[in-house]
Amino acid sequence: MLIGIDDTDSQHGMCTTYLGAVLKTALERQLRENVRLHLVRLNPTIRFKTRGNAAVGITTQSSCGVKDIVQAHIEDMACLHDENTHPGAVFIDRDTPPLDIQHFSHEAIRRELDISYAVKLIERNNVDFLAYKKGRGLIGALAAAGATLGKEDHTYELITYRYAQNHKKQRYINRESIYRADKVTYPYTWDTIDHKNSAIVFSPRSQDPVLYGIRGDDPYHVFAAHSKIISEPYEYMVLYVTNQGTDKHVQHEQIDALTEGCSYALTGTITTAPWAIEGGHIFFQIGEQQRTLRCVAFEPTKQFRAAVRKLCEGDRVVVQGSFIKDCLHLEKLRVVELQDQFKGINPMCCNKRMKSRGKGKGFKCVRCKTIKRHSDTQDIPITREIELGTYEVVPSARRHLAKPLIRDRCVRHPIFPSR
Ligand SMILES: [Zn+2]
C-alpha cells in the first residue's frame, strides 16, 4: 500500500517527517514487515506551505489495519489546533501509483496546485483518504503517494529524532564529530557543514523533534557519516529516500514564459551590470530577444555574491532560481561566455603618457606639447576575475530541492561547489 501524509505540522512545532518515523515503528510492529519511508519536497515557493514543504510517503506490503493506525497517529500528533494546519492522508492500495497521480506528483513539485485537482484524482481512482479541517494536506499527501523516486534521480536523508523530554533543552551534538563525519564522507554526503561560514547546517536550531539529518547520494555513506556523530541519545532514526538535491523543481524556459512562484533555468545576456542595495543584496538584469529579467542574490547567499558581483554587461549566463514578484531569486549561476572588457587609458607621446586636458578635451604631451583628441584614448583589455563555470549559493542558503553542484562532479564544464 502507498500512503501519503502532509500538513500535520505548524510553525511552532512538530514535523511531518517525525510523524513518519513514529508511524514506521507502529506499522512495523502491527504488520510484522519492513516499512519504507520517502520524503517528497514540494514547490518551495507556494503560499500555503508547511515548514520546508515536505510530505511523507510510506510503502507497506500489507494494508491490514493501516488506515486505523495512521488515523490514530494523525489525531494524536498533528497540530490540529493551529489555524494553518490542515492535515490530509491518502491510501492507494497498489504497488505503483496510477499514471495520473504520478503526473500530479511531478506537477506538485514544479507548480502550485489546487485542492480540487487532488480531489478529482482521488475520486477518479477511488483512493481512500483522510482530510481534516480544510484538508489542504491532501495535495502533498497525494504527491507523496504518487512519487516514483526509485525510477528517477533521488538522494537519501538519515534523520534522528530527539526524546520528547529533551525538546525544550539545547541540542547536544559534539562539534568535532560533525567535522569528522563530513570529512570522511564528503562528497557522497553534503550540506552537513557550511565550512566557509563555520555553520552547522545538518541540525535545526528551532524547537522541533529533529536532532540532525544527514543528506547524501547513497545509504552507505549516509550511515557512515551517522556512525561518526557523537550526540545526545535519540528516540528514532530513520532513512528517507527523497527528491532533495535533485533540481526537480526547475523548468527550462524562455524569459517571456515565466509563471510567478515557479523555478527556472534561463539563458540570457547581462544587460545591466550588478548593483547592490542596502542589506547586501545584489541585483543584475539579463535580456534575451527584447525581453529582460531582474535577478537577485540575497545577502544570506553569502560568498555566492562575490561571483555575481564580477559579472559585466555582455556576459552570457544561465541563471537558476525561483521567479517571485517579477524577479529571479538565484540558486545557481552558470557563466557561459565572458564579454571582453576594456578600460580607456591616455595615449603615449615622447615615451610618456599624455596628460588629460579635462573631460572630453583631449590630451596634451608635457614634453612636445602635441595635442590629441579624446577619441585617441587607448583601450586596453581588463583581466576578468571570474572564471567560466557554475557557481551556487552557500549550503546554509540552499533550498532542499536544489541540487548541490558537488553532485554534478562528473559533468564536463567547471563547477565551483560551495562547501
Ligand atoms: Zn610628445
Question: Key features?
Answer:
419 residues; alpha+beta; Alpha-Beta Plaits; Glycinamide Ribonucleotide Synthetase, Chain A, domain 4; OB fold (Dihydrolipoamide Acetyltransferase, E2P); nine-stranded mixed beta sheet; 8 helices; elongated; binds zinc ion
Structure report:
By secondary structure, the protein is an alpha+beta fold. The protein has four domains: 2-151, Alpha-Beta Plaits, CATH 3.30.70.2200; 155-242, Glycinamide Ribonucleotide Synthetase, Chain A, domain 4; 250-340 and 383-398, OB fold (Dihydrolipoamide Acetyltransferase, E2P); 342-381, no CATH class. It is 21% helix and 32% strand. The protein has eight helices and 26 strands. The protein has helices spanning 16-31, 66-77, 99-110, 115-124, 137-145, 175-185, 219-228, 304-309, and strands spanning 2-6, 36-41, 54-59, 88-92, 128-131, 155-162, 189-190, 193-194, 199-200, 210-216, 234-242, 250-252, 263-277, 281-288, 291-297, 316-324, 327-337, 342-345, 348-349, 352-353, 355-356, 363-364, 371-372, 378-381, 389-392, 415-416. It has a nine-stranded mixed sheet with strand order 5-4-1-3-2-11-6-10-7. Strands 13-14-15-17-16 form a five-stranded mixed barrel. Strands 21-22-23 form a three-stranded antiparallel sheet, with no helix packed on it. Helix 3 (99-110) packs across helix 5 and helix 6 (175-185) runs antiparallel to helix 7 (219-228). The longest helix has 16 residues, at 16-31. The radius of gyration is 27 Å and the shape is elongated. The two termini are 39 Å apart. The relative contact order is 0.12. The model has no long low-confidence stretch (mean pLDDT 94). The structure holds zinc ion. Zinc ion binds at residues 349-350, 365, 367-368, 370.
